[in-house]
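A student in our group prepared the protein record below, which I am reviewing. Thanks in advance; the entry in question is below.
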Amino acid sequence: QVTALQPSCLRPISPPSLHRTRTNQRDAATKATNMAVQLGQSEKITLHYFMIKGAIGTATICLEQGGIEYEAKAYTMEDWAAFKPKTLTGQLPCLEYEDGTMIAESGAVSRVAAAKAGLLRDFAKSEMLLGMTVDLWKLVAGNVPTIITVGNWTAEKDKAWTDEHRPKVKTSVERYVKLLVGDSARFTNRGDTLGELDLWYRLSQLVNGAWPDLLTEVPGLKAFYERVAELQGPKKFYTDQTKFGALPAYFVPMP
């Protein structure tokens, strides 16, 4: 009895795109691990912050984006009073290694998280974005309501934001548009560097806070914002699926 062989061209095979996706995922995981080891960031870490979505946001997004295992501790003001003497600077956020070593300052904590997640690639462009966003936030902080200040927000402050501060913020935000590449929805080929995730987080604080029309007034960033919102890290953050769980936003809409 002769068994007919099915021509190889008719045998079911996985789509090339599926092979590429799996290969890319393995490569990304390997690169992230290698980068973490090279930078001395292979230990498990714990993030410490208050019970709000604030300055720990970028670090949390990076760890979730990279699928990195970590612990998170959120503090009430009463809990913070007891923990404060154990910190380096008496401030949060901070990051703690398994041996008890701590790192302070949100920028440093974010870079450690990004290193662990393999997100420090396209380093020069990412750092440029980070610097621009630091300058942007100097125009925002103190001029929009937060969960702490909203109760005392006045009509005069509202007018100052609309007439004086928001135009300056808009000018600063518009600078990013000309730096977009490719599909105009990213600043690097990778598309999820530390600088890009940090920018997205800051934009989200404005969109969900004092400036809900940001993407209408600066439409050039809409594709970037929407693409990044669907990435694993940002999506877990804004749907409260991180290790911190459901927390209120620090920046809130105008009352």
Notes: Residues 16-38 form the longest helix (23 residues).
